[in-house]
Amino acid sequence: xxxxxxxxxxxxxxxxxxxxxxxxxxxxxxxxxxxxxxxxxxxxxxxxxxxxxxxxxxxxxxxxxxxxxxxxxxxxxxxxxxxxxxxxxxxxxxxxxxxxxxxxxxxxxxxxxxxxxxxxxxxxxxxxxxxxxxxxxxxxxxxxxxxxxxxxxxxxxxxxxxxxxxxxxxxxxxxxxxxxxxxxxxxxxxxxxxxxxxxxxxxxxxxxxxxxxxxxxxxxxxxxxxxxxxxxxxxxxxxxxxxxxxxxxxxxxxxxxxxxxxxxxxxxxxxxxxxxxxxxxxxxxxxxxxxxxxxxxxxxxxxxxxxxxxxxxxxxxxxxxxxxxxxxxxxxxxxxxxxxxxxxxxxxxxxxxxxxxxxxxxxxxxxxxxxxxxxxxxxxxxxxxxxxxxxxxxxxxxxxxxxxxxxxxxxxxx
Length: 414
What we know:
Structural class: alpha/beta
Largest sheet: 5 strands, parallel
Distance between the termini: 57 Å
Number of strands: 10
Strand order of the largest sheet: 7-6-8-9-10
Number of domains: 3
Order of helices and strands: EEHHHHHHHHHEHHEHEHEHEHEHEHEH
Low-confidence stretches: 1-15, 212-226, 282-293
């Protein structure tokens, strides 16, 4: 079946199946109405992550298989459909809530890259959501979408999936109402009443009771009955961190395996399937793509390797600065900027293929919150004016003082 690209849409034969071409860029930045701080908040929170890393991975071509060739009217744009279904699961929303979020929430519009102001672009009724979710489920796309998200998170945030643990959570069961805190609170409430009624002397002269007498019902040594009544339980396997303190607080943990079982089922057989599922997850070691902590994330772009290495060495000696990548060409710098989202880019002007001014113009148009510092051997007024016109926040000579460069990177001066 041939695929025809028409008006930035894909059409399968004579069908009315609408799919945006994600490779086609906007001629003008449709999000320029946002202030730099609001744009930065979107880019560094879940909308930016979803837009830059997940949206293009959605299996829209597989979803198109759910529609027959003679489908009589245009479908909703399939990236929007699958993206809305994914965000619905991430935020645990009903169909009605999802329809409202898609209609009004700018975070959803940014995450799904929806720039048109129309019902066709920003409205999906609950009935259509239900139908599209049914199609996606029948095609097995839900696992692919959630799996792609988990794998990308593991890759970008350097999640080590070699360390995982498993635990069970009760849902819709009699045990769900018998949590540790609930049992303890109910016992505290009833114990003094019964003690006063039936053991008056003990009530009037209380004795100190050791805290070791309190047992956790999930403790294997607590001689607790394994029968848990009707309902369901979920086996959840997740990564964990061995770090302590602040380092532990900045690490991301991911759920790698979920299995729903009857509440009366024993936990003894849950570990092996969870381990087998975890073996399919990657163990990665790349630097994180988002700023976690207070370090300034800097990416040098220069066609001279000696210059790049010198900048990396200089910046690496400062504990508040982190070098997160590098590029030898302006054209090659645009893609890492999308993936890494650095705070500062050190951009050379004269480079092959694409010069630094054009690269700065493209990066600034898409990510205006990224500060671009142009470094050059020339100090002419025209070059400085061209750099600032392209979106640079500073223009410095390569022969200048390193302390001034560090001060500009830190935002202490311009």
